[in-house]
Structures are given as structure tokens and as C-alpha cells.
Amino acid sequence: MRLFIVMFFLGLPLIELYFFIEVGKEIGGLSTVLLTIVTAVVGLFIVRVQGFLTLQRAQQSMAQGEMPAIEMFEGVFLFIGGVCLFIPGFLTDTLGFLCLIPPLRRGMIFLFLRQSFVQAQTKQRDDLYQQHRIIEGEYSADDEEPKK
Fold it and tell me: Residue 60: what are its φ and ψ, rounded to 5°?
């Protein structure tokens, strides 16, 4: 896990820098910077609109007495998408925009929930096994001191 985090924080900026250089060669430096700013502004506007729509769906679910679990996860993915869009770079912008596409977002949520459910079941089964394990043996108390 540590290796993944190190590679993420070292690799992602290097990849973003590479894309900046390549895109800058094609469309120019100023255009590259403006494109990055425009994607951030447009993306954050979309996050805001979808956030309000998700909040409305959550309120409707609660009004019907249901738990708005999917809407809460959508809020988390919208937040992740907003953070990715706010970070300057083309790769992070792509990841951010992928979080803004509702069918993809729901698919990612269901994959996450399925994986979490499998891990929870495995842990529950392991805990159950640990609780019900019986060790057989005999016990006797000797009050006498051992003979020498």
C-alpha cells in the first residue's frame, strides 16, 4: 500500500508534467494553461449542479423514510471528482470528469459496495470462526507441592 501511495504522489505529477509539455508543444503554453483553467471552472460548475441534484434526491429518499445510501456515495464521488478537477492537469481532469458521468459514477459505487460487502463477509466469517473455536483439554489443580 505504501508503494502505491509513493508511486501515486511521485508518478502523477510527472505524468501531468509530461502531458503539459506535449499539449503545450501542440497548442502553445498560454492555450494549455487556459484550457486547464477552463476545464477546472466548467467541471466545478457541473459538480455544483450535480451536487444539488444529489442532495434533492437524498432529501426525497429521507422524506419517504428510506436511507439515502447511494446518494451519500454519489456525494463522495462528486467530491473526489471536484478535487480531481481542481488539481491542474489533464489526467486528473479526465478522472474528475469520469466521476461526473452518472452511469459511470453509479457503476463505480456498485463495484465499491460489492468489494466492501465481500470483505465484510470474509471478516465476519473469520470472526465467527474465532469466537466458536473450542479447544478440548483436561484441567486439574494440584494444591500439593511437587515431590522432589
Answer: -65, -40
